[in-house]
Write a structure and sequence with these properties.
Number of domains: 2
Number of helices: 4
Shape: flat
Radius of gyration: 22 Å
Strand content: 15-25%
Order of helices and strands: EEEEEEEHEHHH
Distance between the termini: 53 Å
Number of strands: 8
Length: 194
């Protein structure tokens, strides 16, 4: 029997299950979730299946190009022989849905998740306070002057750092990067060098 590994995106707890959990599409963002963390309520991500000495993740890859998979009609002349024809147009029909599965993670993970969420919220609030105005103007297609454009570019760099921090998979590294970003935003806002 194969074992499947999952990780909470917030508390980073890793758990294993004997069966593969089918992902469920979660509105309003419509991403696929593999469940909810039993300790902190965070979203669960799939790491892979054990294959001897490594984890393997099965991905669906199509050997055809977009002319076949995105076809608007039933005529297929490609190497798949019709197997992948129009597959990008397929929709999933859900007859009966249940709740997301809840993976039971050790309860001490809740503290790590709450620490991370609070720090992330402080960073996002600091980001919005410094860069929210120019970001909104830029997204609305409004003209912004030179100084505001420099501020917008600075905010874009900071935002890339926030996204990179969220992708880190140890608490120490993730929190260290978020704290550094928070300190940088604060020093830039007060005019002091970081």
């Amino acid at each position: 029997m194969n074992r499947h590994f999952y990780r909470c995106a917030d508390c980073l707890s890793v758990v294993a299950a004997e069966t593969k959990i089918q992902p469920v599409q979660v509105p309003p963002s419509y991403y696929y979730s593999f469940g909810e963390c039993g300790a902190c309520g965070g979203a669960i991500e799939y790491m892979g299946e054990v294959r001897r000495d490594h984890l393997a993740r099965t991905e669906l890859r199509v050997p055809c190009d977009a002319r076949c998979t995105g076809a608007l009609g039933p005529h297929c002349e490609c190497q798949c022989g019709g197997e992948n024809h129009g597959s990008n147009r397929l929709v999933e029909v859900v007859v009966e849905t249940g709740e997301l599965p809840k993976l039971m993670v050790p309860p001490d993970a809740r503290v790590k998740a709450e620490t991370y969420r609070q720090l992330l919220e402080r960073v996002q609030n600091a980001y919005r306070a410094r860069y929210g105005r120019v970001t909104d103007w830029k997204r609305a297609g409004q003209y912004i002057g030179y100084e505001d454009y420099r501020l917008y570019c600075e905010g874009t760099r900071i935002l890339r750092g926030i996204h990179a921090a969220r992708e880190l998979r140890t608490h120490a590294a993730r929190n260290r990067k978020l704290n550094a970003i928070l300190a940088e935003i604060t020093s830039l806002a007060t005019g002091r060098c970081a």
